[in-house]
Please model this.
Amino acid sequence: MIKFLIKGLIRDRSRSLFPVLIVAAGVFLMVFLYSWMQGVMGDMVSSNAQFNTGHVKIMTRAYEELAQQRPNDLAILGVNKVLEQMRNSEEKMIWTPRTHFGGLLDIPDENGETRTQGPVMGLAVDLLSQNSPEIKILNLTKALVKGKLPQQKNEILISEEFAQELGIQLGAQATLISSTMNGAMATHNFTIAGTVCFGITAMDKGAIIVGIKDIQAALDMPDGAGEIVGYSKNMLYDERAMKELTQNFNENYSRADDEFSPVMVSLREQNGLAEYLDVARSRVNVIIFIFLLAMSIVLWNSGLMNNLRRYGEIGVRLAMGEPKGSLYRYMIYESIFIGFIGSILGTLLGLAISYYFQYRGFDMGYLMKSSTMLISNVMRARVTETSYVIGFVPGLFAPTLGAIMAGIGIYRRQTAQLFKELEV
Amino acid sequence: MPLINIEKMIKRYPIGGREFTALNEIDLQFERGEFCGLIGPSGSGKTTLLNIIGSLDVPSEGRITVLGKGVEGLSAQEAARLRREHMGFIFQTYNLLPVYSVFENIEFPLLLMHMGSRERKKKVINALEWVGLSDKTDSKPAQLSGGEAQRVAIARAMVKQPELVLADEPTANLDADNSYNILKMMSRLNEELKTTFIFATHDEKVIGYLKRKIFLIDGRVAKDETVN
Model:
């Protein structure tokens, strides 16, 4: 009997192929949308973490209060000691010092006179230490467009777009005009070692990457840094672990009565990211839920209609003496089978496309030309464990629910009524 | 003991908050091997009576015994078993399962009876021979003419050699030649296999073949005549 019914199912495309395609399409959209949303959210977090917030950040309490202004006059001093202590006490983390600064970048002509200049946003990182993690964290090797990474003192990287704007060549001199941490005017000469492109408009518009020791010298902040950022070694942001870490650190080292005592904040606690992430996450969840619901309704309806339109066949089978229970069971088995095959196909397709967009991404830079947010121009999907199973919710359960409801309709209807409906 | 015994049977349907009496005080007996018809205009209650005989519906009052079983007291499962083992149905619109071949359509009632494949094959081949469609074994219903499709439906009803075949307007969609052939075939099967045939019809061509004619008007038996 089962063989007979499977034969019928395979031959009747309106019962097999088309429902499978509908389920697969619905599941594919669900998987892809979910992965895409996760990717966009994850990108936002990782871009911020990569260039700005770290997974955690140590600053002075005073610096933290005015963090948006990057007040280097309130920077941490004795950074090496703090770093050593952190590296010893928190071995699962990567710790590295950074200083953000601003100023003018002056490009001289052959006579040493200003040829051109432009405002610059600078990031000083540890570039020259043997075990510096920054090359990897900032993905500098991949971001390098021309030239080489700095290998000597006073060599810097400049964003490719900015370099073109200033008409600057590799090996050229550039003078940073800024202010020291004590508020005096600072000038320092650098050599352009290479150009970089991060694919983040805010960074690519006018940024330079400088060695931390060079900027300590330039801004007169010996053994000082604006902040120390920490990353978990697997580079995945674990909110709970970071919260625990910051609590422990602050309990031990931070003192409310000393504005220069260190304070540690997690990624969530910086730049209003907590609210942003919560709002964005809840919106993403709402979007996913609405889509899940809509897709479930579509597939439920498809399952319901597929079975209701089989009144004729069902009437004949009942008339021939097939018990209602057996018919009902076969309808549900059929729906589960269709839902399962459709869900597998849809999930495979969804995962394939999601993986493609996870690695290749989709460049939306042309829409973000004036963006100052640290968001990657290349939007990527992100496949998580949930991506593998989320499609089965609408794909498997919704058509089965449709079949169950259609079956209840058949159960409640008098057999004679079904029989009568045959007489079209 | 008659094959079917109906005593003071009434069937009412709720229609628009009121009750419509489709069958009223029906008293009938059918013997084995009869070739008879329920005749009457639309709305006279012939299909309702056929449905109740076929245990597809139950009476509102009265008693009906089919093959010794009281239809009004049967559970859905028992009714399904009665149909599966002892009855065949022929519909006006054939109602063949479109995705299955002629052979498979005829085989279906035997599958419901959990018959072995060798026996099934033998019975289907016999049924195809009865209706003269041995050359259409692998055809699909869509490839058949109306007459051929109805012959397949007859073979499907007859393949398990049931005691009772219920046919609701079996020739309504057929032309005169096909109707003639179909009726002749059913008459022959009735004589050869001693199967009881009960038709619901108002088709003069069918009426001419019947050995017993039960005229229904407004849910009552108006006349019950046997043709010698």
Remarks:
- The longest helix of chain B spans residues 176-193.
- The radius of gyration of chain B is 17 Å.
- Chain B has a mean pLDDT of 90.
- The CA atoms of residues 108 and 156 of chain B lie 8 Å apart.
